[in-house]
Design a protein that fits this description.
It is built from 19 helices and 26 strands. The chain is an alpha/beta fold and 610 residues long. It folds into 3 domains: 3-244, Aminohydrolase, N-terminal nucleophile (Ntn) domain (Glutamine Phosphoribosylpyrophosphate, subunit 1, domain 1); 247-449, Glucose-6-phosphate isomerase like protein, domain 1 (Rossmann fold), CATH 3.40.50.10490; 452-598, Rossmann fold (3-Layer(aba) Sandwich), CATH 3.40.50. A hairpin with a 3-residue loop joins strand 9 and strand 10 (188-192). Bound molecules: fructose -6-phosphate.
């Protein structure tokens, strides 16, 4: 959460910072600010609200500076207002700082600083950092040593960028727990929370690691760790393009990303399937394959949508691998002192690869000796780098806050891992071939479902005034019910619950009346008859049913109010199809209500704080 960007170089930094902040806005959007050099003095402009508010104040070359920093905020400490927006000034207004993360011991530090005469303008935890730096500078330390000593005193997480009046062409950046990447240009260097903000300027980057501090000028980048030891950094060449992070003719990123799914899934499979041999190849698992194969237990961990993907993974692994599998919320797992050993494999799923709880859970599992794998979308992200091995989803950048193509790509990767291991276990060549042949047809089936967009848009119109929704599914489609409910609540602000269909009788059925829409995922599998009984139970109480059924199921429309049909497939792949109408339904209900689906209130794309 929070996006940070900084530029030093030969060009005017203001348009670069504004453009960078717009690209990072998905990380937080309750206020924004920039800090820069106004001749030889530091200055800032900050505003409550979106980056466009800020942009209107600096447009047309009103301000010109060659070095500056920018921030878009997702509030943690202190309400979203102008005072709490970043940057924050030091006492003498000669240091400016932006921060992404949480300082856990800020109250104790604040007390000490107040006793020493420091005055706080904001309610943020971040402000203590700038005053601590000031305190070290006053004691005679250099700018960079003052930052380093400050970082030794603070507990918590940070991605930081700081500028100091007496060293005008320099940005000091530091990282612990929050991402930070440095883009290397000719006569200029850029820092940002992620590569989206710098890809338009350079493809050569350095990822800063925890406890590293970088001194950045237009001439070069000097990285040291918190113990003042110089660190050699590897320069990485990015393959992402600017087109991948623009809307490409769609009205929203979310719609674009929903429609990108056929290609995203093809990319997730590309080069990994050998149909003739009924086999899967995953380069990122090769070095750890034996250990994974011999694991006695698999734990899958993640948050939100990624956790839902993990639940589908549990069904896959237990059906095909017969390995006991558990799924854990990363936030609970990390603090529960989980029982783990080297016989366990833990798979961490994360689109961003930066979710604080998932990253901390990974570190905990590593400490306890478990084999740790990552399923990430963001290449080079912290979770990908920390894992012993892993598989990228290759879905391309996901900018809409509600996860769509990342989820279905995660399901593809989980299915690939399942088939890879199953072939080493009991899955025969013929069964492997059959599974993979069907798997390859999934992107086309997805394309077909997306053609139902207009039908789903019409259905959505009837529900824009609903205040509650229930989503029901069984087996592989129970996690899909959870995911459908999450999509609806996060972008339309309608309360929604996902349930295993049979659980309805144990409580939620009390909610059902003529005002309660119930979305039922009802493919023709072994639980079909049972789910039809659940539908009857809802109908008997006048609930309105939207059924997700398979093509050719003509019976279901006699008992439900709306039917959305998806092509049939094998059970393991069904969630990839059944979730699509739910993404579109949530999307159109939210758009009908006039809401901003890409940046729903209170949310941020990458949750890098606990
Ligand atoms: C929901 C959503 C969130 C994320 C969750 C984990 O649409 O986007 O629930 O799934 O914050 O994020 P990652 O996958 O980046 O770890």
């Amino acid at each position: 959460m929070c996006g940070i960007v900084g530029y030093t170089g030969k060009r005017d930094c203001i348009p670069i910072l504004i453009e960078g902040l717009k690209r990072l806005e998905y990380r937080g959007y309750d206020s924004a600010g920039i800090g820069y050099f106004d001749k030889d003095k530091l200055a800032y402009i900050k505003r409550k609200g979106r980056v466009t508010e800020l942009e209107s104040l600096v447009e047309g070359g009103k301000i010109v500076s060659k070095t500056g920093i920018g921030h878009t905020r997702w509030a943690t400490h202190g309400i979203p207002n102008e005072i709490n927006a970043h940057p924050h000034f030091s006492k003498n207004r000669d240091i400016l700082l932006i921060h992404n993360g949480i300082i856990e011991n800020y109250q104790a530090l604040k007390k000490i600083l107040i006793n020493e005469g420091y005055k706080f303008e904001s309610e943020t935890d971040s402000e203590v950092i700038v005053h601590l730096i000031d305190r070290f500078i006053k004691k005679g330390y250099s700018f960079s040593d003052s930052v380093r000593h400050t970082l030794i005193e603070i507990e918590g997480t940070y991605g930081l960028a700081i500028i100091y009046e007496k060293e005008p062409d320099k940005i000091i950046a530091a990282k612990k727990g929050s991402p930070l990447v440095i883009g290397i240009g000719g006569d200029e260097n850029i820092i940002a929370s992620d590569i989206n903000a710098l890809i338009a300027h350079t493809k050569q980057v350095i990822y800063l690691e925890d406890y590293e501090i970088a001194e950045i000028t237009k001439e070069g980048i000097l990285v040291r760790n918190i113990h003042d030891i110089p660190v050699e950094k590897e320069v990485i060449e990015l393959s992402m393009t600017v087109e991948e992070i623009s809307k490409g003719g769609y009205s929203t990123f979310m719609l674009k990303e929903i429609f990108e799914q056929p290609d995203a899934l093809t990319n997730a499979m590309r080069g990994r399937i050998i149909v003739d041999e009924g086999r899967v190849k995953l380069g990122g698992l090769e070095g750890i394959m034996d250990r994974l194969y011999h694991s006695e237990r698999i734990i899958i961990s993640g948050c939100g949508t990624s956790w839902h993907a993990g639940l589908v993974g549990e069904y896959m692994f237990e059906q095909y691998l017969r390995i006991p599998t558990e799924v854990e919320y990363a936030s609970e797992f990390r603090y529960r002192n989980p029982v783990l050993s080297e016989k366990d494999a833990v798979i961490f799923i994360s689109q961003s690869g930066e979710t604080a709880d998932t990253l901390a859970a990974l570190k905990e599992a590593k400490t306890k000796g478990a084999l740790c794998l990552g399923i990430c979308n963001a290449v080079g992200s912290s979770i990908a780098r920390e894992s012993h091995g892993g598989v990228y989803t290759h879905a391309g950048p996901e900018i809409g806050v509600a996860s769509t193509k990342a989820f279905t790509s995660q399901l593809v990767v989980l299915a690939l891992i399942t088939i890879l291991l199953a072939r080493r276990k009991e899955l025969s060549l013929t069964d492997g071939r059959n599974l993979l042949t069907e798997f390859q047809s999934i992107p086309d089936k997805v394309r077909k479902i997306l053609e139902l967009n207009n039908q789903i848009e019409k259905i959505a119109e009837d529900f824009k005034n609903s205040t509650n929704f229930l989503y029901l599914g069984r087996g592989y489609n129970f996690p899909v019910a959870l995911e459908g409910a999450l999509k609806l609540k996060e972008i339309s602000y309608i309360h929604a619950e996902g349930y295993p269909a049979a659980e309805m009788k144990h409580g939620p059925i009390a909610l059902i009346d003529e005002n309660m829409p119930v979305v039922v995922i009802a493919p023709k599998d072994s639980t079909y008859e049972k789910i039809i009984s659940n539908i009857q139970e809802v109908k008997a109480r006048n609930g309105k049913i939207i059924a997700i059924a398979i093509e050719g199921d003509d019976e279901i429309e006699k008992i439900v109010d709306y039917v959305i049909r998806v092509p049939d497939t094998i059970r393991i792949f069904m969630p990839i199809l059944t979730v699509l109408p739910l993404q579109l339904l949530a999307y159109h209900i939210a758009v009908n209500k006039g809401l901003n689906v890409d940046q729903p209130r209170n949310l941020a794309k990458s949750v890098t704080v606990e």
